[in-house]
Design brief:
By secondary structure, the chain is of the alpha/beta class. It has 8 helices and 10 strands. Strands 6-7-8-3-9-10 form a 6-stranded mixed beta sheet, with helices on both faces. Strands 2-1-4-5 form a 4-stranded antiparallel beta sheet. A hairpin with a 2-residue loop joins strand 9 and strand 10. Helix 3 crosses helix 4, helix 3 runs parallel beside helix 5 and helix 5 packs parallel to helix 6. It is globular. The relative contact order is 0.19. The structure holds adenosine-5'-diphosphate (ADP) (2 copies). The site of one adenosine-5'-diphosphate has 3 residues, from loops. This is ATP-binding cassette domain-containing protein. One of its GO terms (molecular function) is ATP hydrolysis activity. It comes from Anaerosphaera multitolerans.
């Protein structure tokens, strides 16, 4: 389970302090898919980037099964980061590495033994249904295939939480569908928690259990997907 409590992140502009995330709290259960929607500039990316400390928040707590990620030292964070995977709109794969090398990367960082890495990579390739591309380079893959590889890399260390920042936004409907069914497989098979930013209402409606609406750094509404989209 992940609990975010009173999270704040501000940036210094020329003269003033700008609160990109201004006191956000929510919690997500194991096996749940939590959506974050809202206009561009609402603070969604900054919020999610604070959860894995790509950004350093100014205030608040991020508890993963009770451990406050924000209180960890650099060394402890390295260990705990393998509990949080992340994917991006633009995939962010290593272009000079093969599919297998991309997926191996977090396992090597975590010092997993070589033979185990090989086994895990094959398992993940099977999971994302892309065995035939094991030795291909990202440039040889379609957008949907690239995102599947990015997902395999993000879940390689079997994290508790998968973060997605517009993970389907660059994809056509068919590829979007394949990524969403992969998300569903991840929560049912691995019991992970998924927190996903999307501007695609249909995507949020289709897959999220609960949704938070962000505006000006705050959550202005949070509800089950069913309630949120219920016609008045
Ligand atoms: P969203 O993901 O909802 O589009 P962001 O989290 O990307 O919103 O951005 C929220 C606000 O914070 C925006 O006004 C953006 O310009 C600002 N912001 C984001 N990152 C930085 C940064 N590194 N430095 C300064 N301002 C930033
Ligand atoms: P998105 O809309 O997907 O959130 P953005 O274009 O807002 O993407 O942000 C892309 C990157 O630029 C992020 O790493 C964000 O932190 C950074 N960024 C956004 N706004 C600013 C800003 N005003 N100053 C510096 N960095 C920013």
């Amino acid at each position: 389970m992940i609990e975010v409590k009173n999270l704040k992140k501000s940036f210094e502009n020329e003269k003033e302090e700008f609160h990109a995330v201004n006191g956000v709290s929510f919690s997500v259960e194991k096996g749940e898919i939590f959506g974050i929607i809202g206009l561009s500039g609402a603070g969604k990316s900054t919020l999610v980037r604070c959860i894995n400390r790509l950004e350093e928040p100014n205030e608040g707590e991020v508890l993963i099964d009770g451990v406050d990620i924000l209180k960890l030292s650099k060394e402890e964070l390295l260990k705990e980061r393998k509990e949080i995977g992340m994917i991006f709109q633009s995939f962010n794969l290593f272009m000079q590495k093969t599919v297998a090398e991309n997926i191996s990367f977090p396992l090597e960082i975590s010092k997993v033994p070589k033979t185990e890495i090989e086994k895990r990579v094959d398992e993940l390739l099977e999971f994302i249904d892309l065995k035939e591309k094991k030795y291909s380079y990202p440039a040889e893959l379609s957008g949907g295939q690239k995102q599947r590889v990015a997902i395999a890399r993000a879940i390689a260390t079997n994290p508790k939480v998968l973060l997605s920042d517009e993970g389907t936004s660059a994809l056509d409907p068919a590829n979007t569908e394949s990524i969403l069914s992969l998300f569903k497989k991840i929560v049912t098979q691995y019991k992970m928690t998924i927190i996903m930013i999307t501007h695609q209402m249909e995507v949020a409606k289709d897959i999220c259990d609960r949704i938070a609406v962000m505006d000006s750094g705050k959550i202005i509404e949070e509800n089950t997907t069913e309630e949120l989209f219920r016609n008045p």
